[in-house]
Amino acid sequence: MKTIKTEILARRLLASGLAVALAISPALAQGDRDHDHGGDKAVEEHHDHRDGSESEEEHDAHGEDAHDGHGHDEEDGHDESGHGHSHDDEHDEHEDGHVTLTPAQIGNARLEIAKAGPGTLHPSITLFGTVRPDLDRLVHVVPRFPGIVTSVNKRLGDRVEKGEVMATVESNESLRAYPLIASIPGRVILGNVVPGQFAGTDDPLMVVADLSTVWLDLQVHRHDAGLIREGQRVVFPAENGGGEVEAVVSYVSPIAAQDTQSVLARATAANPEGHLQPGLFVTASVMQEPVSAPVTVKREAILHDGAEAFIYVPGEEGYFERVPVKVGRSDASHVEILEGLAAGISYVAGNAFILKAEAGKNTAAHSH
Amino acid sequence: MIQAIVSFCVKHRWLVLLTVAFVAAFGAYNFTRLPIDAVPDITNVQVQINTSAPGYSPVEVEQRITFPLETAMGGLPGLDYTRSLSRYGLSQITVVFVDGTDIYRARQLIGERIQAVSGELPPDVETAMGPISTGLGEIYMYRMAAAPDARNAEGKPYTLSDLRAIHDWMLRPQLRTVPGVVEVNAIGGFERQIHVVPDPYRLTSFNLTFADVVKALEDNNVNQGAGYIERNGEQYLIRLPGQIGDAAAFGEVLLGTHNGGPIYIHDVAEVTFGKELRTGAATHDGEETVLGTAVMLMGENSREVAGAVRGKLAEVGRSLPEGVTIETLYDRTDLVQKTISTVRNNLVEGAMLVIVVLFVLLRNFRAALITAAIIPLSMLIAVTGMVEYRVSANLMSLGAIDFGLIVDGAVIITENCLRRLSEERKHLGRVLGLDERFAVVVDATREVITPAMFGSFIITVVYLPILTLTGVEGKMFTPMAVTVVLALLGAMALAITFVPAAIAIFVRGDVEEKESPVMRWAEKGYRPALRFALGRQKTVAIAAAALVFVAALGATRFGTEFIPRLDEGDVAVQVLRMPGTSLTQSVEMQKQVERALIELPEVREVFARTGTAEIATDPMPPSISDAYVMIEPRSSWPNPRKRKAELLREIDEKLAAIPGANYEVSQPIELRFNELISGVRSDVGIKIFGDDMERLLASANEVAAVVQRIEGAADVQVEQVQGLPVLSISVKRDVAARLGLSVAEVQAVVQAAVGGARAGTFYEGDWRTPVLVRLPEALRQDMDRLRELPIPLPPAHEAEDRFAPASYSPFGDGMPRVVPLREVAEIGLAPGPNQISRENGKRRITVTANIRERDLGSFVDEARDTVEAQVRLPPGYWFEWGGQFEQLVSAAKRLSIVVPAALVLIFALLFASLGTARDALLVFSGVPLALTGGIAALALRGMPLSISAGVGFIALSGVAVLNGLVIISFIKNLRAQGLPLDEAIRQGAMTRLRPVLMTALVASLGFVPMALATSAGAEVQRPLATVVIGGILSSTILTLLVLPAIYRLAHARDEERAA
Hints:
The structure holds 2 protein chains of 2 kinds.
Chain A: H1 2-24, H2 33-51, H3 56-70, H4 74-81, H5 93-96, E1 99-100, H6 103-109, E2 112-115, E3 117-121, E4 124-133, E5 138-141, E6 147-152, E7 159-160, E8 165-171, E9 177-181, E10 186-191, E11 198-199, E12 206-209, E13 213-221, H7 222-225, E14 233-237, E15 244-257, E16 262-270, E17 281-287, E18 291-298, E19 303-305, E20 308-314, E21 319-324, E22 326-330, E23 334-339, E24 346-350, H8 353-360
Antiparallel strand pairs in A: 1-21, 2-24, 3-18, 4-13, 4-17, 5-12, 6-8, 6-11, 7-10, 8-9, 10-12, 13-16, 14-15, 14-17, 15-16, 18-23, 19-20, 20-21, 22-23
Chain B: H1 2-11, H2 13-33, E1 45-52, H3 58-72, E2 79-87, E3 90-97, H4 103-117, E4 126-129, E5 138-146, H5 160-175, E6 181-188, E7 192-198, H6 200-205, H7 210-219, E8 224-231, E9 234-240, E10 254-258, E11 261-264, H8 265-268, E12 269-275, E13 280-284, E14 287-296, H9 302-318, E15 324-331, H10 332-362, H11 365-389, H12 403-406, H13 408-428, H14 434-467, H15 471-506, H16 517-535, H17 537-555, E16 560-561, E17 571-576, H18 583-598, E18 603-611, E19 624-631, H19 644-656, E20 662-666, H20 668-677, E21 684-690, H21 693-708, E22 713-718, E23 724-731, H22 733-738, H23 743-754, E24 757-764, E25 767-773, H24 777-780, H25 783-787, E26 790-792, E27 818-820, H26 821-824, E28 825-832, E29 836-839, E30 842-851, H27 856-870, E31 878-882, H28 884-914, H29 917-924, H30 926-941, E32 945-946, H31 947-976, H32 981-1005, H33 1008-1011, H34 1018-1058
Parallel strand pairs in B: 7-25, 16-32
Antiparallel strand pairs in B: 1-3, 1-4, 2-3, 2-29, 5-14, 5-15, 6-14, 7-12, 8-9, 10-11, 13-14, 13-18, 17-19, 17-20, 18-19, 21-30, 21-31, 22-30, 23-28, 24-25, 26-27, 29-30
Helix pairs in contact in B: 1-2, 1-14, 1-15, 2-11, 2-15, 5-9, 9-10, 10-11, 10-32, 11-13, 11-15, 13-14, 13-15, 13-32, 14-15, 14-28, 14-31, 16-32, 16-34, 17-30, 17-34, 28-29, 29-31, 29-34, 30-31, 30-34, 31-32, 31-34, 32-34
């Protein structure tokens, strides 16, 4: 009888010690791995105690160690780990969010267990943009002298080669006809001209653009402004079934648009097939520098209780420990764990919600 | 007077028979009108006011809907109390009236009150009263099924949305016309909607907003009328059709112009058929399905209505598209059939038994038949009475009628008539003439009628305490008491009219008493036993007293069970998951539950409702499922002899292996009752009323901590009000204002993005399809995308040109004017209130506790003192104490007055009948003596003391008193005729041996099948039958042996005095 009581006490001390360790760790130096391992060791000891095979003295000793080691007393531990609903002196495991499942339950829970480990994250930023012609490869065809257009050789959409005659204008001053020559190869993207028309020197008669490369103008809102840099890779789906298109950020505007509070990032994309038609809206991902993180877990593993993030760590005999974590950067599939979990520790990667549900099921009620 | 009646009946015997035939026919007619259901209806008089407020969080629901509505309900006539629940998107107020209030009047008054406050409610909410139904209302459930190769109009396999649409627009309108059906409720699948999904970037690059889209859709989908014109004597109506007749045509609606070009909806948006953002889902055997429930109007006959629904479904089923079928899942008729067959078995078995016993003991088949006829006749009279008093027939009211007991009066009269007739025959030595026979019958009837009548009266009296029960217990047991009393009164009336008349007619000719071998054997055994008992009066009396003492001691050690659980055959499992569990997750978990349960060979099918159905008769959050486990008929079980408890244990085992939820196993009707009555179901409930949720929760936790420490407290729980995960998006007013956005504009975009904005209805014949403007699925599927939700800025003003921007825009004209949501709003995760409960217009939180190994009264007193001393409530906060203990205390209080009163009344009746207090006491002593056997029988079978067993004890007291009364009055008569005491006792006892044995055998043998029963209603019958069988055995022995002995003891002085 006495042994059991002592064991419960020791377990409780350890549990609270562990909670303190995890809760105060943000305050300690980051990357203090030893500390993390200390936490892990506490987890294991905790499990040993559950086996109940050790003697009374040992339990006491462990209890004291854990207790003193973290320099907090029991009350603090409770405060740190209490979740507000405890109406009961006893902190049973469900109230801490820890769960023990029977073998049959584990069979039905369809949990996926993975090991936390170092990994490389490929974060990206999703931005909205439009396709525009590459202004470096676009020429205006403007009459040198005002006059009457006598012939038009190229129509809207026609391909032109460099040096080709696009139209002929008879100058009003010299009354001599002179040709308008394409200075680059490309396609006529503007050509509002008919023979006999008067052509002034203010507006271009035609515009020739080389669309083999286009610009992708991306709108970067304030939150992301600091993260977009020249040279970053941009990936976006081409419309009309052209597959994925890659580009590189070539320019980030030093000034911002006032109305939308955003800056411009421009990527230049190759457009050999012509799928990227200027004017189209595009949603693009700007790939950030890969981050190698010492501890990463799958995105689905992260659960939330209010604003607090946590994951489940499997122990022995169906025991699952709820471990609060601090989440860092993330990409589409993984997140970095800043605190709370060391590399090499197994965690519940899939269907972890079942554990949260099991822990919280006693709060379920159907009252009217 | 009684003699006059008997003489009259014998004289006009044919008239009596005719009258009885007429009464029986009337009873048979009434039987067709009798509402039959499996269990008594224990629902209180209540009206639910449901308000659906899509998108409102619990706090907003409470503040803007529940509060004004609930306050308006104050002071309604007959109001008992109101309670309310504010949950995400739903407000439910339950207005409970005192029993006996006219529901239609109550609803009318509530309707008026709702009307009065409707102006205060937000315009976009719908308030409606729940269907006029009770806990027994859900009589028929079915699902829509499609064959795997069936194809819909578009040539694709049927989807859940298709099936739901077929249900809603083809099946439901027809089903609602079935008389007695008040509502047809659908859950599962998705309501079909037309979704107009604008691309926010395109929209804003055309300088358009969501509101423009909604307005354009609303303005271009209306038919108008414009009066008429007359021409050449004819009148032409003017019609301005403008409704869109084809879903694709929504894309053609003109939205506006841009640079002179028209912009149509399809330029900025996609138009598709989509799924609603649903609040509930249905599953069947591990797959999603569409589930329909027919709800019966209050007071209707479930047998008829369920039958009519079945007929209608078969009819509608024929006109459904090919491959689409309706599968019945639950049909109340099955249960009603079981009830009827149980009652029929009782009748038939009772009648057979009476015939056999009477024939064996009387050796007169006609007399046996006459007596047995009392059973159906009194039953029919009872039915007429039940229809008159609006008592429904069910397992409780009919299943437990003890027909052996009811015929006792008739048995005694028949026996005496037969005995006297054969005595006269022997005395005269010839066959009796008609008048002689009549005279004998009248005299023989008169001889025993007083004790027989008093006996029946006494049985009636002992049922009176049951009539005083109120609340759930009252609703459960009053029908039973009423029915028994009606049957008893009917039998009594028949015993003094029909029995003598029928004997006079049918028992003629040579009535020579043929000594039955059974009787001969019994008399041979009884004679020495009686001599033995009379020889040792004091020992016998002391032994009897000791027996009673032991039994009384034993009775205190029984477990008690206040309300028996009537076996409905099927099983219901309420699956309770953590608040905040999503519907999709719940459905997945529910499928797993169903797949596990269906593995049991006894389970026919499993289906479930998760979340709230379209009509929120039961506002379940998406985290809760009500699963119905349909059980195969016993005959197709692998082991038909398996106990139900065993099956329930297996179900429990299956459930325990599926993590993530709590499971409460009950039964379909029981579950519904629980949901409707839904008071505090624990022993003690401490309600704390106040304003601030945080304060209430803190106080509740304090109270729980205090109660926890009190001895005997168990399962102390604080009502869970927190824990709903909330993503709160609060607009940064300053940022928004500088961008030219109002808070409402941002809110509207988010609303449209997640929930969708209603933009009219698409009509296709009777089919109505809501049109919603919603953002692309990709933008609303996860939290991170929601942060990026583009909020269109207001259209740029022309005037802006005049004020040069402070900086040059790096963009040309081509960039849409949008900002992501996170620019203008703080987005945070926080747990919010899950639900807000109110009672009588005030917020409340409940702390519940059960009590173990301590009596309720002292626990409550101590808890109350301690809590009130130790927990300080802020001003304006108060406690209220309630729970099961209230009912137990009030029932106990009432019974403590009524039971002694009934006993006094019995004694008075005995006194009136016997004329001396001493004899009355002697007969009265039979009651505790009879109870000993009942207690012993219960103990032998390990059954708890229940109300059922209590009814058995009541019946027993009746039998004991009846037999005692008959013996004592006989002995008195003999003594009055001048016989000496001993001789009178001996002769009287010997003469009454046959009727006493007869009544005892009829009552006890008749109960043997019931005591072993496993059919519907067995849980009510078994304890009752057990008590009666055990009690009758002891009572018979005591009546035959102890009573003569103590009578001799009590009257020894008289003899001395006389000597």
